Amino acid sequence: MMTPGARQDNFRGWMTEATSFSASADHTQKKEKFAVQFMKNEKEVDIPSNEHGSPNAAADQKEQSTSEIIIDCVYTNNGSPEKTEIIKSVVTHQDASGNCELYLPESSNCSAMESSEDSEEDMYRDAEEIEREKILLSETSSSEHKLSVAPEIDIIEYCRREWRGNTPVAKRMRKGYEAVAQRFASIRRVRGDNYCALRATLFQALSQATQLPSWLQREDFTMLPENLLSKYDWIKQWQLKEKLGRKMGEISDEIKEYLILLRKKWKTISEIEDPIEKQDACDKLFKNEEEEYSLYEALKFLMLNTAIRLYNDDKNGRRVPVFSWLLFARDTSSNPCQLMQNHLNHIGNSGGLEQVEMFLLAYALQYTIQVYRLYKYSTDEFITLYPNDPEEDWPVVTLITEDDRHYNIPVRMCQETML
Predict the structure, then answer these.
(1) Which of 48, 100, 236, 318 lies 20 to 30 A from 393 at CA?
(2) pLDDT tens digit string along 66-117?
């Protein structure tokens, strides 16, 4: 079991999938190779509300260590998967003096130079320009200091302000933002306190909700904590976010309250027809810290429930999505109990969502999460879907990330609710 201190490093993953087929008259197999490269990096720092999006976040990353998990799997003609091989390799070199050398793609090598480029650029900026920026930040601070999701601003203007340098990284980011701007006019910055992936996803889902999802309509939905605790005693170790001025009751009762709140808020907002009123209701909800963080606890518990179901399905020989093998192939989450102790319990405290857990969030909500990964501009991974084979009737929410660690929200889009 990892300690909270040990979880201050979270992972950033890159996923690739290759599929091949071999067939005969009486037997067909589908072979898949699914690889994730996890990169250790520091936890997301809580960003003051006047700095929701971390400027040049991709450029300020420190040295990282990388490991890769590769799963070769075969699907037989009856549809059941057979895991044939799990390979783990570390691609970090450490010399005798303890210095680590990381082998990264050439495009990543300039990341560490970006902040120094910008600081040198400040030496040549006009004093009046610097003063104007200070005034702007001051005004933003006073007007947004309790907002978890900042008001929208023009996406190109935001890009020019955040990425002024002429390094390869800055140029790539500007190209990425220009591509996003073809579909979205504005961006809303999300507070970076290790809840940003949950916050951005939930905000987008509620903003476009027109009905209550079927899984929220189930009669036994609020009985989920009690039912799971009756089967898995280890869930008593679930760590709830502390509420000021209120004593913690039984864990099942607390989580039940969160689930009830989630259903209530989702139903209320989905019934608002006027888009401006709907947006106002979302903004109001995300200014209420107690309710907001209660909703995140509900989402985390739904992720645990989904993980338990997938784990049991795999053990019972039922077909499961490939990401669930990756989820439980990690040394720190070989089963749902470890996933809870070493990952879910630390979301919002010492770490955010890792990329493989974005898949888990998508399955828990039955939403497709579409992410513009700006540092992957001009590659096949520039637009990534979680999951990569979504159900046709799942609604789509869209996020933006510069580094797979912090997420912002694009807005003012063409009507798009389904893939």
Answers:
(1) 318
(2) 455 555 554 444 444 555 454 444 333 344 333 433 333 333 333 333 444 4
Residues 405 and 375: their CA atoms lie apart, in Å, by 12
> pLDDT tens-digit profile of 287-338?
999 999 999 999 999 999 999 999 999 999 999 999 999 999 999 999 999 9
Residues belonging to the active site: 193, 196, 406
- Please, what's the b/e burial string for 146-159 (b: 16 or more CB within 10 A of its CB; e: otherwise)? ebbbbebeebbebb
Q: What is the dihedral of CA 302, 286, 193, 397, to 10 degrees?
A: 60
> What is the rounded distance in angstroms from the CA atom of residue 54 to the CA atom of residue 51?
7
Phi, psi dihedrals of residue 370, rounded to the nearest 5°: -100, 125
Calpha distance 35→39 (Å, rounded): 13
Q: What is the pTM of this model?
A: 0.71
Tell me the backbone φ, ψ of residue 78, rounded to 5 degrees: -90, 5
